[in-house]
Amino acid sequence: MDLKKEIKLSDLVPKRRKKDAVADVQPKLEKPKRERKRAFGRAKAEKAEAAPKEPRKPKELKAKKAGRKPAGRKKKFVGLKIGASQISAAQVVNNGGPHVLQIARHDLDAGIVVGGELREPEALATALRHFFKKNRLPRGNVRLGIANNRIGVRMFEIGGIDDPKQLTNAIRYRAQEVLPIPLEDAVLDYQILSEYTDGDGNLKRRVLLVVAYRDLVDRYTAACKKAGIRLAGIDLEAFAILRALAPPTEDGAEPGTAALVVVSVGHDRTTFAVSDGSACQFTRVLDWGGSSLNSGIARALDLAPSEAEPIKLSLSLSEPSIPAGLTSEQAEKVREAVLHELQAFARELVSSLQFYQSQTGSLGIGEIVLTGGTAHLPGFAAELAKLIGVRVRVGDPLANVKVSKKVDRELPLGSMAAAIGLGIEGKQ
To answer: What is the value of pTM for the model shown?
Structure first.
């Protein structure tokens, strides 16, 4: 999948049929248009002998047309990410390149979204209405991101088929084989990653397939509809964060020699995505997030996880520190608990990296780019680098885009990466 494209799962988003739209306006426009044309013809004939009409100034006409074109090319989207602890959004204009106009975030009550699953649609609809109204965000052309273990992503090769309809049917048939989701309960989309001809002259295609449980996505779309939000598409968060954080490449550029790994650490889950610089090669969702650190701290100090959050935010792994209100002994327990949780996270990452590298066509690991709110914990990236043995850095989702002066850079940018990537227009 081209990093600048998104898998929209487009059959989830109802679209108005063009025929219906034409039928609505055509009766109002046809008659006046013919009348104006005849009236103009008669007036022109009557005045032809009396006084020759001055020709229109072509320069003015061209200037008028030229003035309308740039507005038509501007495509504005609102990227919307709904996490377990917050809602984030980014308004992006795509006009020759992405331009971030606005970013916003708001805390979300616990229990509404758990592990990527929407548990309370009514509560989410209420929160979305308040969020969009408070931040004066457009409710149209919204792209929603989803990440969940009930979304299957697979790559495979298929050959010997030239007809597009037959190719779609063949891919749906293969989906039944490679993904444990009954097609009647699912929606799917796919991208052709590459094409080549084998030694026997047969056309082969490399396909990226995404399948999601319909009920999973239906809950989000229903909540958005109740909030008055009009969805333009649904995308995987993995693809969105790659668009936001991968360095820009020229069209037609060859894939790199080293893989870029992006790891987005959310509240209760982490999105892991691997790219060769031009295509997403592998992605999965890990059941680990910032709340795992809260749980470790809570166990160490015999606290509730919610009480551990302020301690985590005041912690530093880059140098010895004692969070406010703790003794030096308690601070040491907290540090040990956090490092223990990080070791578990590092093992998950190493397992995912090894699985990726066991696949045909995999690349060496160049670096890991961290994002998400937890990524900004001082010393977090350095500790992971020690445990994994690969260079780790914190990514900046605004590094490759134009940014409006109105954008609040004080917001935690790591938690905005998915929303910004969702707002970036994909090439069609």
So the answer is: 0.79
